[in-house]
From TrEMBL:
Polar residues bias: start-end ranges: 1-10
The protein's name in its UniProt record: DUF6745 domain-containing protein
Positions of region (Disordered): 1-20
InterPro entries xrefs: DUF6745
Domain DUF6745: 191-393
Species, as recorded: Catellatospora bangladeshensis
């Protein structure tokens, strides 16, 4: 291979490396947009809406309305579509609409223009980038820019949010089973409205791949300024961004002291390590007892309670049985009603703490484990025979 060829190969590798860094930084910027808890930039968002309509070949909406959360947005759209005013729990939404001159039953939304405003520009931007980069190049570009924002925003945030709103609305329908069709009309219309929602800031999950592409300019401006929104012929309904987003080190929604995701109108999601929980369970977490955990009939909720309470504390306070002990530690076991037993290995850390003491750890292991040695080996993905403690560093 000639020196010129080697030099060219090295130069191309550097370019690819520089591109990867730049694209990763682009993805992180959009991820930050998707996680923003700043108050909506209403003027910027409304300008973005008008640009999105213009790019779709549509006149600007006659009315742009604002509501406090995606849940309020879905119900607000349903009120305007059906003319239903809702009950006491919906009063804040109705008042917000009326304060903006939008009384349910008196404002014509027109048909949904989401396919033209959101779906078509996305497809056009994707096709243009695919033509420019080719299949392999596009896949690399997507992985560098959008893979992480998609996982963090769509999978960990937007999907649980949509699921929770839909479940709440479905619960309202169930509670009203057997009542008049008119009473059920509002929650059903709100569930249907969820299908028309545009992600706003959560569209950053895919906008990261199409940074500065002209076809998505309007969508990008709204994403940088507001939360979920709805596009109709005559009306656009926009919503605020959250006031708080709490996540764990894996990016999952997670908070043990209030909602993990909360909006300025009071709507929120209570979540523990990515597991949605009810507000009632969330309120109990700081005050749990062994008896309350045992009494919980839902196995998933009991596991949330155990994590918050602390497995080692539960062992101490629940009368767990010491089933075996060896040079690797002590094996503890306690029965959980309607669930697999809780089995943990108590081990002493071989490295001293700064004060010279040695810390005790509890490692949860499968209920099939019968010795402490086998339990510690399992944490290293080894069999009991393969595990040689003196060779571990």
């Amino acid at each position: 291979m000639s020196e010129q060829t080697i030099s060219g190969t090295a130069s191309a590798a550097r370019r690819h490396g520089d591109d990867d860094v730049r694209l990763a930084e682009q993805g992180e910027r959009w991820l930050a947009t998707g996680l923003s808890c700043e108050p909506a930039d209403r003027a910027g968002a409304e300008a973005g809406v008008r640009i999105a309509y213009a790019l779709a070949g549509l006149p600007a909406p006659k009315h742009i309305l604002w509501l406090g959360s995606p849940a309020a947005g879905a119900l607000g759209v349903a009120m305007l579509r059906t003319g239903q005013r809702g009950g006491r729990r919906d009063e804040h939404i109705r008042r917000a609409l009326e304060a903006q001159g939008a009384r349910p039953g008196e404002l014509d939304l027109g048909r949904s223009v989401r396919p033209r405003v959101r779906t078509r520009p996305w497809a056009q931007a994707r096709a243009a980038l695919m033509t420019k980069l080719g299949g392999t190049g596009f896949a690399r570009h997507w992985a560098a820019t959008a893979r992480r924002p998609w996982q963090q925003l769509t999978d960990q945030l937007a999907t649980p949010l949509r699921t929770r709103i839909d479940a709440d609305l479905a619960g309202r329908l169930s509670a009203r089973a057997g009542q008049t069709e008119q009473v059920a009309e509002l929650p059903q219309a709100a569930r249907e409205a969820l299908l028309d929602a545009i992600g706003g800031q959560h569209d950053a999950a895919w906008l990261a791949a199409f940074d500065s592409h002209p076809d998505v300019d309007g969508l990008a401006r709204v994403a940088g300024s507001a939360g979920w929104w709805w596009a109709f012929e005559h009306v656009a309904v926009l919503t605020e961004r959250p006031v708080a987003v709490h996540r764990d080190n894996l990016g999952r929604l997670h908070h043990g002291d209030g909602p993990a995701l909360s909006y300025p109108d009071g709507f929120g999601l209570h979540v523990w390590s990515g597991m949605p929980i009810t507000a009632e369970v969330a309120a109990e977490l700081p005050h749990l007892t062994v008896e309350r955990i045992r009494a919980e009939g839902n196995a998933e909720m009991r596991r949330v309670m155990l994590e918050h309470f602390g497995f080692d504390r539960y062992l101490r306070e629940s009368g767990a049985s010491k089933t075996q002990s060896d040079e690797c530690g002590t094996l503890w076991r306690v029965t959980l009603p309607g669930d697999e037993p809780l089995v943990m290995v108590e081990v002493l850390n071989s490295s001293p703490e700064p004060d010279g003491s040695f810390r005790t750890y509890f490692l949860r292991v499968p209920p099939t484990i019968r010795t402490a040695r086998a339990g510690v080996a399992w944490t290293f993905d080894l069999t009991e025979e393969e595990y040689v403690p003196l060779q571990q560093t």
